[in-house]
Amino acid sequence: MRKSYIKLVLAALAAAVAVAIWGNPEITPRPYIDLVALLLLGGLLWSAGNAVIVIHHQSARIAWKTALRTVSRVGLAISAGFIFLLVVSNTPEFSSVPWARKARIVELIVPLAMAVQAALAFSPDDEPGLEILLACPRPIAWVLLERFAALFLAQAGIALAGIALTTQFINDVDLPLLLIRWLPSALLLSGIAVYVTQRTRVAAFGVITAGLIWIAGVFYGNALLPGIPSLRPFSYIQPLLWLIHPYLEPGILTTGDYWLNRFCVTALGINLFALAILMLRDEEYLLLNLRQPTNHQ
Amino acid sequence: MQYLSFHQVLAITRYELMMMWRRGSLRIVAAGLIILPLIYLIAARESFLLAVERNELSGTPVYYLNTTMMFLATMPTLVTLLVAIPIILTEVIPLDRQYHVNSWLRALPLTHRAYLAGKVLGIWVGLIGVLLLACGVLGVAGWLLIGAFDLSMWLLLWSVGLLTFTLFTGALSVLAAAGQPNRRRAVIIGLLLVGVLIFLYVHAPIGNFHMEAIVATYTDITLIFNEGFTRLPPIITLEALIIGTAILLLTGLLAWGWLCWEEYR
After folding, report:
1. Are residues A215 and B83, on separate chains, in Cβ contact within 8 Å?
2. Alpha carbons B18 and B16: distance in angstroms, whole number
3. For residues B147 and B45, what is the distance between their CA atoms, to the nearest angstrom?
4. What contacts A71, CB < 8 A, 6 or more positions away?
């Protein structure tokens, strides 16, 4: 609790210093945007560094067959089925529903399906034989990574098939954009789902959080765009929120800002995933839901 | 033949209520029911007050508009009702199986009917408490943020529109996943239920009152104020009660049959 207060005070101090240097974020948001992007980049580099060290020291092989067995066929079938039905359906282009534009269908379905499966991939309270898994020389985080890698590959396959199908139904195809646009939101929602699941130890909470953020992003995401009026004190952070809009469409902001948003969304997802992995290193917490009083040696 | 024991049902109800609180399910549902509409109220307040100030809303009295605004603010609760509740509450019975509590329960003179009734009642008591809290908090917040609105209509919307559908959703979630062996499988049933509940909300009378009340206030607020909700609730509520009870009884019967078969096996 004391640590949390110290962190809160430090954050408030940092915010006060930033305001003193750069001024009100409502008027000059750009330095704050750069700072947020740099912080996310720092987190990404730190996660990548840790991953390289772990892979270098880890001699265990990837258990692909076991990992693939944990990927729910039902989830994959539902994901593929929804994409197929929405792509072949005759929803008018001028309809207000987000899936009316066929280029967005893969981007809408795959991230949600992947997040749900990521939440269900590994939850400490529901894992049979957790004590035995923890007693093995293989790090427990490896299990989550393997399962996530397996479901990521499976969903990526469905996404590619969906994109191939989509290209048959739309005229002016921006293929590189179509191939990449589902990825940032998929990583963000999966990162949130995995993080919340590890934090609360319950897969259902991860599923719900990812679902709520999906709904908010798809239907109300444009409320995060700069210039939308909001109540104080939210108006101070409102000009920065577009950075984490999971479903920002190209053309609404400048090309540079669009790609900055895509980078921030991706980096946030990966950072949340890395934080979830860090939680798995605490065996006392994993097994008994007890926090260790001291830091790791 | 064993009959429903009132004391056994009460004991299971109390136990389930306590478990829901400890697991954090009730807190998550409460947070969803309060925070999402609150965000909507805060976000929409500025543009709403601006429109009222500029008299863009065709001269309708502000009191009426405030009521419409409060009705619209209950729309985000649907996310909790249709998405969060089924996913969270489907784990109630499978969790007993996962933790092997059902082995203990089987050793007791407890009928499956008492067990299921206790579970459903526990959920209902918890949900009623959470709904009362949300209705009160949102009412006060709305009064402070946008101004006076019609309290009787607000209470009618929550009691007839949201309460019935919430109780239906909660009970259906508990009973539909009664046969699942663990929490993970229960979550998948919960996800499937989300689709079923959205369909029922849109097409079955059980959810229609809430939606029709909102649409009616949005399209013709003055008419609604002149006539009250007299045109809407009696028929729809009766129909909703019949259909809702029939669905719950059928699901309950299936759940009871599954538990009996499982014991026999």
Report:
1. yes
2. 5
3. 11
4. A117, A147, A150, A151, A154
Report chain A residues whose CB lies below 8 A from the CB of B79.
212, 215
**Around B58, how many Cα atoms within 13 Å sit in the side-chain half-sphere?**
6
In the 3-class helix/strand/coil scheme, how is B225-247 assigned residue by residue? HHHCCCCCHHHHHHHHHHHHHHH
What is the Cα–Cα distance from B51 to B158, expressed in whole angstroms?
27
Chain B environment of A116 (Cβ under 8 Å):
191
Burial tier of A130 (Cβ tally within 10 Å: 0-12, 13-18, 19+): middle
pLDDT digits (tens, 9 = 90+) for A2-46: 777 888 888 888 888 888 888 888 888 888 999 999 999 999 999
Angle in degrees, 0-180, between the axes of helices B25-53 and A203-220, rounded to the nearest 10: 10
Q: Which helix (H) or strand (E) holds A292?
A: none
pLDDT higher than threshold 50 for residue A297: no
Residue B155 C-alpha from the chain's centroid: 15
Which among A173, A182, A181, A169 has a CA at the least distance from the CA of A93? A169
pLDDT tens, B160-170?
778 888 888 89
Q: Which pLDDT score is estimated for B4? A: 61
- Taking CA–CA distances from B50, the nearest residue in chain A reads A229
Residue-wise pLDDT tens digits, B50-89: 766 666 666 667 777 788 888 888 888 888 888 899 999 9
> How far is it, in rounded angstroms, from Cα A295 to Cα B20?
32
**Contact residues on chain B for A113, CB-CB shorter than 8 A:** none
- State which amino acid sits at residue A250: P
For B87, the closest of A125, A200, A204 (CB atoms) is: A204
Which amino acid would we find at residue A29?
Answer: P
Distance from CA of B257 to the nearest CA of A (A): 26
Asked if B83's CB is within 8 angstroms of A126's CB, the reply is no
Amino acid at position A170, single letter: I
Q: Are residues B90 and B176 in contact, defined by beta-carbon separation less than 8 angstroms?
A: yes
Alpha helices, H only, A23-127: 30-57, 64-70, 73-88, 105-121
Q: Which two tokens stand for residue A270?
A: 């990966």
Q: How far is B175 from chain A (nearest CA, A)?
A: 17
Q: Cα–Cα distance between A244 and A38 in angstroms, integer? A: 14
CA pair distance A84, A105, nearest whole angstrom: 9
Which residues of B fall within a CB distance of 8 Å from A235?
none
A63-81 burial code (b ≥16 CB/10 A, e <16): eeeebeebbbeebbebbbe
**Most B-contacting residue of A82, A122, A123, A126 (CB-CB within 10 A), to test interface:** A126
Residues 206-245, chain B, touching A (beta carbon < 8 A): none
